[in-house]
Design a protein that fits this description.
The complex is a heterodimer of chains A (about 150) and B (about 400).
Chain A: H1 8-16, E1 20-27, E2 30-35, H2 40-50, E3 54-62, E4 67-75, E5 80-88, E6 94-96, H3 106-116, E7 119-121
Chain B: E1 4-9, E2 21-27, E3 30-37, H1 45-49, H2 54-62, H3 71-84, H4 90-119, H5 122-143, E4 152-153, E5 156-157, H6 166-189, H7 191-197, H8 205-211, H9 215-219, H10 227-230, H11 251-278, E6 293-301, E7 304-312, E8 318-324, H12 327-330, H13 334-337, H14 343-352, E9 365-366, E10 373-375, H15 377-395
Antiparallel strand pairs in B: 1-2, 2-3, 4-5, 6-7, 7-8, 9-10
Helix pairs in contact in B: 2-3, 4-5, 4-11, 4-14, 5-6, 6-11, 7-15, 14-15
Chain lengths: ~150, ~400
């Protein structure tokens, strides 16, 4: 349904509508969108199943204001990368898992949970991926205030 | 109910570049499940990178993997260049592609040799690795190192390829074509290899898309994705070459895709070297500062797309550096690829996505009920090789014939 790179942003606006809070077009090949966390499962489903974007990976970032997740989607046919950003509350970072319909996201959500302490609700197989099973709870290495001596 | 056995594979072996731990669940000869555990070599590189300058970061990511030791740096410098809107001189593009493609050839040859070993064709293994040496020698000549080339930097490369070196590189490349053709014919026409690899460990197109699998793993299942073609960078948009795909998604097709890709790599390098004779320098644009913002860089490593994301706050260090290697997406596909296959085929199926293959060397089978060791890694390798021997006798064939004459 997408025919050219120029159509990606209009189609995203049409499909995602009010879910989009902010658009930043760094270049024609790099589009950044901001979406509220409760809209992420629906937005991801549209990206993955309807627009057939490839799930590249997700990046979790601990910033002073919020914990951010960036979902990186690739439109391989049109040389365009779309990054969908969402902000989570630092005190209680929680979001719905996209792994039930996107198996490609299963590992990275496990990784973001153990390294950043983000809770993914309804994840099919939530357990440690990189860290050992008896890793102390509440010590998240990629958090800004992680306790180095425990690690 | 048949007795269920768990076969642990890994996690450690002195030869492994990165440890992984596979638990094969088997009923009799049949694999009924696979559990993958990673993290035995988690070095915290993303965290460490936040304490390095953008130039140092490149050296850090070069050490993620010894085999794709230039793919990570290329993706990383492209992420920095994307964040900082840095222009790169044209000559740099050709040099980056030459290094990247030489790496692809040596990586694919490494895989082909090991695949031969797992299947019991040790002649293939030895000969393939002999010709891999000439690629490593070329690398040493150009960069000063057989591995970890330290060629990439944001805005350029650290060493030029000198005009007087080009004829020598071309001669060595030409010398590779004949043996590669021999390997290709030996694999494509050999009935024993057909019997061992065709229809084994199939990944369907839909499974590739669901798991986001990449590189030769995806292309062997008919998913035509290649970062070099889809997102032209370095010199890949400036030279003539084609993306190799196959349709069946079995071990055979993955092998064929990798072998044919090496010919494309040689084509790319030859054209780049011709261009290097005329395209003038410099080979570095010397960027002074990276402005605040996000940058994404990706590169087609031998195993698939390497992804780097960098966030800059205007200082000389990244505030966040995300790295995603292709095996992170490819290894989970093993879960579907080994399902219902026999133990003798598990070795080659797990190796077919080209993870750290050395993992597969260290296998121990433990009986789930008695915890008694039933099979050790040499036994599993032997199982795989015995199956080939059996097929050879049944088919009345010898396996691939390699006639190189006397090595020069």
């Amino acid at each position: 349904m997408i025919a050219a790179r120029e159509e990606i942003l209009p189609i995203l606006r049409e499909k995602l509508g009010n879910a989009i809070q902010e658009v930043f077009e760094k270049s024609p090949k790099r589009i950044y969108l901001e979406v509220k966390s409760e809209n992420i499962p629906e937005v991801s489903r549209v990206m993955f199943r309807e627009l057939e974007a490839r799930f590249q990976i997700a990046t979790g970032i601990d910033t002073p204001g919020a914990i951010e997740i960036l979902y990186h989607w690739a439109f391989d046919l049109y040389e365009c990368l779309v990054t969908i950003r969402t902000k989570l509350d630092r005190e209680k970072p929680e979001i719905e898992s996209i792994a039930p319909f996107c198996p490609a996201a299963e590992w990275i959500e496990r990784e973001m949970w153990e390294l950043l302490g983000i809770t993914f609700k309804n994840h099919p197989d939530m357990r440690h991926l990189l860290l050992k099973d008896d890793w102390p709870e509440g010590n998240y290495p990629l958090r800004r205030n992680s306790k180095k001596d425990q690690a | 109910m048949p007795k269920k056995t768990i076969i642990p594979i890994g996690p450690y072996h002195p030869l492994q570049e990165e440890p992984e731990f596979f638990k094969l669940h088997v009923e009799g000869e049949k694999v009924v499940g696979l559990d993958i555990e990673i993290g035995y070599n988690h070095r915290g590189i993303e965290k460490l990178s936040e304490s390095k300058t953008f130039e140092q970061t490149v050296f850090l990511v070069e050490r993620i993997c010894g085999i794709c030791s230039t793919s990570h740096p290329i993706a990383c410098v492209q992420a920095v260049e994307d964040a900082g809107d840095i222009e790169v001189p044209e000559r740099v593009l050709y040099i980056r592609s030459v290094i990247g493609e030489l790496e692809r050839i040596h990586s694919h040859l490494l895989w082909l040799g090991l695949a031969g070993h797992f299947l019991g064709f040790n002649t293939v293994w030895m000969w393939v690795w002999r010709y891999r040496e000439s690629v490593l020698d070329m690398m040493e000549h150009i960069t000063g190192n057989r591995n970890h080339y330290a060629m990439m930097k944001p805005g350029g490369v650290r060493r030029d390829i000198l005009p007087e070196d080009i004829p020598g590189i071309k001669k060595t490349l030409d010398g590779l074509v004949k043996p590669l053709a021999l390997f290709r014919d030996a694999v494509i026409d050999d009935p024993v290899i057909h019997a061992r690899t065709k229809g084994v460990g199939i990944l369907t197109k839909q499974q590739i898309i669901d798991y986001g699998a990449l590189g030769p793993t995806a292309r062997a299942s008919g998913v035509k994705i290649d970062t070099r073609k889809d997102y032209p960078h370095a010199a890949y948009g400036l030279v003539d070459w084609k993306v190799i795909t196959a349709e069946n998604g079995d071990v055979f097709d993955k092998t064929v895709v990798r072998i044919l890709e090496m010919f494309e790599s040689i084509k790319i390098i030859e054209q780049c070297l011709d261009k290097l004779k005329t395209v003038p320098g410099p080979v570095d644009s010397n960027p002074k500062a990276i402005k605040p913002g996000d940058g994404i860089g990706h590169y087609e490593a031998p195993r698939g797309e390497v992804f780097h994301y960098i966030r800059s706050d205007g200082t000389n260090r990244p505030v966040r550096h995300k790295v995603r290697a292709p095996s992170f997406m490819n290894v989970p596909t093993d879960r579907v690829a080994v399902m219902g296959q026999s133990i003798a085929d598990a070795t080659i199926i797990l190796a077919a996505v080209d993870p750290c293959y050395c993992c597969t060397e260290r296998m121990i089978a433990i009986d789930a009920d008695t915890r008694r060791t039933a099979l050790r890694s040499p036994d599993l390798l032997r199982l795989s090789q015995e199956k080939t021997e059996l097929l050879k006798r049944e088919l009345g064939k010898e396996g691939p014939k390699l006639d190189f004459g006397v090595p020069s």
